[in-house]
Design goal:
Strands 1, 2, 3, 4, 5, 6, 7 and 8 form an eight-stranded mixed sheet that branches. This protein is α/β, with parallel strands linked by helices. α7 packs antiparallel against α8.
Length: 278
């Protein structure tokens, strides 16, 4: 069985990153090996988990609470990665769960989770026999998960099979009955999910300069965009770009993402030959 750590970069992460695990304690030994310098915070609702022998010596900041009932009190945008395997399966309110976890992910960060596939051929066969044994867990279809992530302001949803049947005969039989089988969905009992707080383009923009600088840059560009003392704003923009060494490609991409009327802003800057002189 594969797990959500499949989504980490090949070879792990050697930088100091902040990682939160929520009811995903079983992966902590493997996570520590992959991310030896990470600052790891772990939330578990079981008091005995932090004392388990395999979890000793991992340098983890433990928090024992049931996050389904109690609010997580970490600062917003505190973590580069949030690993919450059960966020979609045992949560009480999926929308509220994802919104709460999303607030903890940095603008350049990612959330990893998983879900049981309601379209799995084993589930379909059980339903045909009049059985449905899932009482404590939610089941989802990939399309539902995409909509949920979109509703909770996540971007760029990616899936990978967590548990998948080897043979294809049974799934072919279901496909012949009219069930779509894109990416062997009918043979996959568990899907792993990775979602980002920002698109790749926006994440790259956020990774290069501080939030304070980006807010100031957006403020000046919006003043130019909406003709609010544009000449004074332009002079401040020049000074900011010079002091912070903002390069042309970055500024062009930033305008494309931050401005509702990028052509107007580009036209204003081009008339002053600004981008060519950065």
């Amino acid at each position: 069985m594969r797990d959500v750590l499949e989504f980490l970069p090949a070879g792990g992460i050697k930088q100091k990153v902040d990682i939160l695990t929520v009811d995903t304690s079983r992966l902590l030994p493997k996570l520590r090996k992959l991310c030896p310098y990470a600052r790891i915070t772990a939330v578990t609702r079981l008091e005995e988990v932090p004392e388990l022998p395999p979890l000793q010596g991992l340098e983890v900041d433990w928090h024992v609470l049931d996050h389904r009932k109690e609010q997580l009190t970490f600062p917003e945008e505190a973590f580069d990665y949030v690993l919450a395997e059960e966020a979609l399966t045992t949560c009480y309110e999926p929308y509220l769960e994802l919104m709460a976890l999303g607030k903890l992910v940095k603008g350049t960060g990612e959330l990893f989770t998983r879900f049981y596939n309601v379209r799995y051929q084993g589930v379909l066969e059980a339903l045909r026999q009049g059985e449905f044994n899932y009482r404590a867990e939610h089941l989802w279809a990939k399309a539902e998960v995409v909509r949920l992530m979109d509703d909770t302001l996540f971007k760029e949803v990616a899936f990978a099979p967590g548990e998948q049947d080897g043979g294809e005969e049974d799934e072919k039989a279901w496909a012949e009955l009219g069930f779509d089988d894109f990416s062997r969905d009918l043979a996959t009992s568990v899907w792993l999910v990775r979602v980002c707080r920002s698109t790749a383009a926006v994440a790259n923009l956020k990774s290069l300069y501080s939030p304070e600088l980006r807010r100031r840059l957006a403020f000046l560009l919006h003043r130019v965009e909406y003709d609010i003392d544009p000449e004074a704003s332009f002079r401040e923009l020049q000074e900011l770009c010079r002091e912070e060494q903002i390069f042309p490609d970055y500024l062009e991409d930033f305008i494309g993402e931050a401005c509702a009327h990028p052509k107007k802003v580009f036209s204003f800057l081009s008339s002053r030959n600004f981008l060519n002189n950065l």
